[in-house]
Amino acid sequence: MAGRTLFDKIWDAHVVRELGDGWALLHIDRHLLHDLSGSASLADMAERGLAVHDPDLVFATPDHAVSTRPGRDGMTYVPGGRLWSALRQGAQRFGIRLFDLGESGQGIVHVVGPEQGIVLPGLTMVCGDSHTCTNGALGALVLGVGSSESTHALATQTLRLQRPRHMRIRCEGALAPGVTAKDLALHIIGLLGADAGVGHAVEYAGSTIEALEVEARLTLCNLTVELGARSGVIAPDERTFAYVQGRRFAPQGADFEAAVAAWRELHSDPDARFDREVQIDAGTVAPTVTWGTSPEHAIAIDARTPDPRQAAGQGADAIAQALDYMGLAAGAPIAGTPVDWVFIGSCTNSRLSDLRAAADIARGRRVAPQVRAWVVPGSEDVKRAAEAEGLHEVFAAAGFEWREPGCGMCVAANGEQVPPKARCVSTSNRNFVGRQGPQARTHLASPAMAVAAAVAGHLCDVRTLA
Ligand SMILES: CC(C)[C@H](C(=O)O)[C@@H](O)C(=O)O
Ligand code: SF4
């Protein structure tokens, strides 16, 4: 038998029935629900008189539509309150565990899954959210699903899926000081394009990936969907096992040891075949930011915006449009661009390690007077851990607002918007037109780069910050 990829190994272990033409019915080990798509799935189930097949494998938490204002409750953002109570009612009706506001386990669904040990190596997991790919960093087969797939999975604990093609992105070399997994991810998308992964499952491998901490791997995998791929995966290793050990829903004691023994088999065989292989020289990656309205509009901080006059055909129009929306000149240095807002948060960069990296730059500095800057921890547990270390005080002393856990300004589904034409440096994953509010302008960056921009008042290289 030919060698198998990591993805194949997890897939094969979950096939309930082969359906032909590459399709199979797969067992789904975990299902996560959030207030936007999850509340809708549960309402659909109720309306159709369906029962949840295995409520113990389903977990819910409000994140998108809840306010992150200090002292908030579920009704602080009134339009979102309806979704919050629908999620609560649905969870209660079907006997699903809900991590509610103020409780350990509440937070952005993709932060909570790994943090609580709900997502584990070798498992299959779905969630009605495109950034479910984040969880592949633990060596799990994870998929963002649509509403009918979500209902199917709730009702049957299975999903009918077509095996994707395989793509391996091999990253070699040590990241330079000041360069993070976020910069690497943006660099990769900038290089390959936002549709490079369509139809593929991505595996990240190589010495750079092996050297990344698990939380940094989560950041990298989070951006896989911005490459067009539904899932990204990293082979679990000693770092993964150490990360998982002791988490609330992870196996404990002898069960954990037995699980680790099985998890050690979860890697692509040396002779596994990939449909596409890409090599990335990670040692040359610089701190990277986006200039335009797609994550593929990524450039090194010391580079210039593109010039449509030097591009051909449709590409030129798209560049001109993006520059116009962003209020930027063609062929101009991106560094020095003045900034109005800074948002540190989202399922990309709101874990404890991200907040530590941000605090390291913020310590002893001040947010520029014209800038408004927020730090939104990814989960209740992240918030508590950060406060126990005094990070909230570092941020407050530097002039940042310290907020409650949730998606916050990432997609503005909770009314927290960047004002029209204001420019925001954001640690999130999407800079689409109107993403952070109508006419809002978003530059994606790492937490350290976002703090550097907040302090300088303009986009700048964190490595040269005064
Ligand atoms: C609202 C939700 C379904 C959506 C997603 O699928 O990703 C959101 O989380 C996003 O980041 O755009
Ligand atoms: S933080 Fe942003 S990207 Fe992540 S799930 Fe929430 S809205 Fe989507």
UniProtKB/TrEMBL annotation:
<dbReference type="InterPro" id="IPR015931">
    <property type="entry name" value="Acnase/IPM_dHydase_lsu_aba_1/3"/>
</dbReference>
<dbReference type="InterPro" id="IPR050067">
    <property type="entry name" value="IPM_dehydratase_rel_enz"/>
</dbReference>
<dbReference type="InterPro" id="IPR036008">
    <property type="entry name" value="Aconitase_4Fe-4S_dom"/>
</dbReference>
<keyword id="KW-0100">Branched-chain amino acid biosynthesis</keyword>
<dbReference type="InterPro" id="IPR018136">
    <property type="entry name" value="Aconitase_4Fe-4S_BS"/>
</dbReference>
<keyword id="KW-0004">4Fe-4S</keyword>
<feature type="domain" description="Aconitase/3-isopropylmalate dehydratase large subunit alpha/beta/alpha">
    <location>
        <begin position="8"/>
        <end position="457"/>
    </location>
</feature>
<keyword id="KW-0411">Iron-sulfur</keyword>
<dbReference type="InterPro" id="IPR004430">
    <property type="entry name" value="3-IsopropMal_deHydase_lsu"/>
</dbReference>
<keyword id="KW-0028">Amino-acid biosynthesis</keyword>
<dbReference type="Pfam" id="PF00330">
    <property type="entry name" value="Aconitase"/>
</dbReference>
<comment type="function">
    <text>Catalyzes the isomerization between 2-isopropylmalate and 3-isopropylmalate, via the formation of 2-isopropylmaleate.</text>
</comment>
<keyword id="KW-0432">Leucine biosynthesis</keyword>
<keyword id="KW-0456">Lyase</keyword>
<keyword id="KW-0408">Iron</keyword>
<comment type="pathway">
    <text>Amino-acid biosynthesis; L-leucine biosynthesis; L-leucine from 3-methyl-2-oxobutanoate: step 2/4.</text>
</comment>
<protein>
    <recommendedName>
        <fullName>3-isopropylmalate dehydratase</fullName>
        <ecNumber>4.2.1.33</ecNumber>
    </recommendedName>
</protein>
<keyword id="KW-0479">Metal-binding</keyword>
<dbReference type="InterPro" id="IPR001030">
    <property type="entry name" value="Acoase/IPM_deHydtase_lsu_aba"/>
</dbReference>
<comment type="subunit">
    <text>Heterodimer of LeuC and LeuD.</text>
</comment>
